[in-house]
Amino acid sequence: MLKELEANYGHIFETELLHEINNVGTFKEVQQGDELIRIGQYIKSMPLLIEGAIKILREDDEGFELLLYYLERGETCAMTLSCCTGNAKSAIRAIAERNSKLIMVPVEKLDEWASKYASWRTFIFSSYHNRLNEVMDTVDNIAFKKMDQRLLHYLKEKVKFNGDNIIQSTHQDIAYDLHTSRVVISRLLKQLEKEKMIKLKRNSIELINV
Fold this sequence. Notes:
This protein is of the alpha+beta class. The protein folds into 2 domains: about 1-140, Jelly Rolls (Sandwich), CATH 2.60.120.10; about 145-205, Arc Repressor Mutant, subunit A. Helices cover about 45% and strands about 25% of the residues. The protein has 8 helices and 8 strands; from the N terminus they run ααββββαβαααβααββ. It has helices at about 1-10, 15-25, 80-85, 110-115, 120-145, 145-160, 170-180, 180-195, and strands at about 25-30, 35, 45-60, 65-70, 95-105, 165, 200, 205. The strands form 2 sheets. Strands 1, 2, 3, 4 and 5 form a 5-stranded antiparallel β-sheet that branches. The protein has a 3-stranded antiparallel β-sheet with strand order 6-8-7. A hairpin with a 5-residue loop joins strand 3 (about 45-60) and strand 4. Helix 1 (about 1-10) crosses helix 2 (about 15-25) and helix 7 (about 170-180) crosses helix 8 (about 180-195). The radius of gyration is 18 Å and the shape is elongated.
């Protein structure tokens, strides 16, 4: 586990902190589609992502979901941090976007390391800042962009985080993430295909000119 920590966080954390994380952290592997955090759950540990991608979603009172942002390797979830430090129930769901590896850090270590290591404090503040910007981007997309623009942005982000021009998602999956109907998504995808920007396949979408 120490080698993975050094490869992904060695440029951020002091050697002493890397060894502490290695000593108290728990290595975890999840498969694409696995739920890491559910809404209403008390958070006992904070994830440090060392491989893969995790998507963070918000859910309304009727059970409809909205994609907030993605986590990549070398990152953590600011909303998880908020629940950890406030001993509050989770307000988000975390689902593996693809097969991923994480190191789970016990909650009780967060404050201790914040006072002990400057690199940890910087990492935490940076995580809050980056996630806030991404949430604001999501709000801007909802408030100011039409659904076709939101869909195109969503597809580009999926390609970016998966590192593959082929997106393995159904129309219903996309509709859930964008908080709209499958009929709307299917219509917009067909329009993008007519414009030769994507190619629709069974349960997948290939971006060819975006």
